[in-house]
Design a protein that fits this description.
The protein is of the alpha+beta class. Helices cover about 20% and strands about 25% of the residues.
Length: about 325
């Protein structure tokens, strides 16, 4: 176990990063296809093919999920990922034509660095770089331009990034998570309640506590678009309905670590990927256990995203 989402059998991860413009994309690849689910909780999502992840559709397996910077512009990276997979003969067999299924979602990182986004070539590069090894965390891939704590404006924000974690259950089932943390609110340690990264006090000594500011009725600056994205994966054999349940409950991991979360300015989205093939359908008790592990993995990955970040774009990181 490396402590990454790639501990889940069949899952690979690849990053493409633009450290100058501060944007990028990350591909979570399952070459054999994974049963997919999705849950959107934010009110401002930027997504592709999320409807295909829901119950009642013809195609139930995704071959990759792409998380992108660049707001809606960045969704074109998913097309590049699909082309790269198709060139390797991977995809849904549509009468002899391979069509990779690649859901995607974006964060808004245009307010830090340059106004730039990952394109088709970037998506291809992320898939080409994908492997089942340990996953680089921090300011890479879709987390290259990620920030948190924006209720006092970007100048008081803290640099964030992408994080991952995995949990092994009794019986050897693994649940992993990958999270791009680009929240407007603060990231807290759910064990202590302490703010780990967020809106900084004037002078940079400590954090302002975004929820406390909101409770006091302060006048915030114009909203900076924000969003946190996650992929949870397991090697358990799930149905589409169960994968959607897993994605829905995994949002609890975000709610425990990000305050506030799921706002009108967020596009918070969690994807689920189940790589298990065959086997008996899991009963409700087993799915509930998986959901508990998914929440745990999302919590850990969220904390790793900010703790592994480094200073960029003139913004300090939590581990400065």
């Amino acid at each position: 176990m490396t402590g990454a989402i790639t501990d889940v059998a069949g899952i690979e991860v690849g990053h493409w990063s633009d450290a100058d413009a501060l944007t990028g994309c990350t591909a979570v690849v399952c070459r054999g296809g994974a049963i997919a689910g999705v849950a959107v909780r934010g009110a401002a999502p930027g997504t592709r093919e999320t409807d295909l992840c829901r119950p009642g559709t013809l195609v139930e397996r995704a071959h990759a999920v792409v998380l992108c910077g660049g707001s809606a512009f960045g969704l074109e990276a998913a097309s590049g990922a699909a082309r790269e997979l198709a060139s390797a003969g991977i995809g849904y067999d549509a009468g002899g034509i391979r069509v990779p299924i690649v859901p995607a979602a974006v964060i808004f990182d245009l307010a830090v660095g340059a106004v730039a986004w990952p394109d088709v070539a970037a998506g291809r590069a992320a898939v080409a770089a994908a492997s089942g090894d340990g996953v680089e965390q921090g300011g890479v891939g879709a987390g290259t331009g990620a920030t948190v704590g924006k209720v006092l404006g970007m100048e008081r924000a803290t640099k964030s990034g992408i994080g991952t974690a995995s949990v092994e259950a009794a019986g050897g089932v693994v649940v992993g998570a990958l999270v791009v943390v680009n929240a407007g609110g603060d990231v807290v340690d759910p064990q202590t309640g302490a703010i780990v990264a967020g809106a900084r006090l004037a002078g940079g000594d400590g954090y302002a506590d975004s929820v406390a500011l909101i409770r006091r009725g302060f006048e915030p600056p114009p909203a900076v678009q924000q969003t946190t994205l996650a992929v949870v994966a397991t090697d358990a054999p799930l149905t589409v309905e169960q994968a959607n349940h897993l994605a829905s409950v995994a949002h609890d991991g975000l709610a425990r670590t990000i305050r506030p979360v799921h706002t009108m300015h967020d596009g918070d989205t969690v994807f689920a990927m189940a790589t298990g093939a065959g086997g008996d359908r899991l009963d409700s008790v087993a799915v509930t256990q998986l959901a508990v592990l998914a929440v745990d993995a999302v919590e850990r990955a969220t904390l790793n995203a900010v703790l592994c970040a480094t200073t960029a774009g003139g913004l300090p990181a939590a581990a400065r």
